[in-house]
Amino acid sequence: MREINVKRMVVKVGTHTVTRRNGKLDLPQIERVVEQLVSQRMKGMEVILVTSGAIAAGLEVMGMRKRPNDMPTLQAAASIGQVELIHIYSELFGRAGIKVGQILLTQYDIARRQQYLNARNTIGRLLGTGVVPVVNENDTVAVEEIRFGDNDRLAALVAGLVEADLLILLTDTKGLFTADPCRDGQAKLINLVPEIDKKIEELAKGTDKEHATGGMITKIEAARIATSSRVGVVIAHGREKSIIDKIVAGKDVGTYFPPKTKTVGGRKRWIAFGTYPAGKLFIDKGAKEALIHHGKSLLPAGIVGCEGDFRAGDIVEIFDEEGQLIARGLSNYSSDETIRIKGTRSSEAARILGESSCREAIHRDYMVIMRR
Fold it and tell me: What is the rounded CA–CA span in Å between residue 366 and residue 220?
């Protein structure tokens, strides 16, 4: 038995959990998931549902058997499917007297600090009034540059956003295995992953399934995000009987990733995971040592290269000269300014850009070390 004390949880249902093999919505299965969420809600649990299936639902209404490749058609399907999905969830939760509220997010909403805070406040208010937030990516307006790409990452960010105790990722596999169970009959389920290391990353495989965008590798990344926000994560089979009830009861089902005891604050979580970087900085060995081992800010003198087109205030990634990711941070300079002052002392940078310029390229308070 696992010791899981849960008062607030995020449950993500993947496309294959809510659809049949032909890609159409599986209404009896959706009802079974909702019944479990209602059961937990009646016990006093706060529940946030992150759901896939909008595009599948829209394609079904449009009479399209095969998922199209062009973005406008996918967005149109999502528009129709969102209405279908929220209607289904509203009706099913409504049978128990529980109201739902729809939250549609894009990467832009998480990447911009104010929108990030607005989303957190809205979800918090819904929970405070007894409403179950139903979250999905806003595929109707999302394009490649602003998409989460899968609801696993979205669910992890939401779990950190609302400071949940547990994130449950329901999919079409029992969890993470020692090998691909479809190809290796000796593959064994891994019940506990204390730390996500390179070995665990190697075990994660992608998916080539027609109606899904994620795979185990996206779930491992979601687990990394959520556990860093002090949220426990369970990956489990969404069609196993009473799976949510079993997880909350602490039974050894699925793969469990315990939350990290040492985490960063909300602002640094946003810097680390909430947004895609606008550019890259490359630093020398001295700067790498100062950042990792001495907790220093990044000064212009330590920068040896710059890529991307970013503005002051944008998030950038910091790499060493071998191309290894070191950190993420909020840049005090634009890419043009960075190119002009890289490799210079702070006094020289001030002369080039003006005395009002910042001493640090990235201040320690606005930086997160990603790998040690």
Answer: 26
- What is the pTM assigned to this prediction? 0.79
* E strand or H helix that includes residue 250: none
CA-atom Rg of the chain in angstroms: 22
* Domain residue limits, the chain: 8-268, 277-369
Residue 158 contacts residue 127 (beta carbons within 8 Å): no
What fold does the segment set 277-369 form as a domain?
Answer: 2.30.130
Q: For residue range 130-172, list pLDDT tens digits in order.
A: 999 999 887 666 555 435 556 888 899 899 889 999 999 999 8
Per-residue model confidence as pLDDT tens digits over 164-213:
999 999 998 999 998 877 777 888 999 999 988 888 888 875 434 434 44
Q: Is 227 exposed, middle or buried (0-12, 13-18, 19+ CB in 10 A)?
A: buried
Three-state SS at 88: helix
Q: Which fold has domain 8-268?
A: Carbamate kinase (3.40.1160)
Residue 87: CB partners within 8 Å, gap ≥ 6?
Answer: none
Helices 216-228 and 266-273: crossing angle, nearest 10°?
A: 160
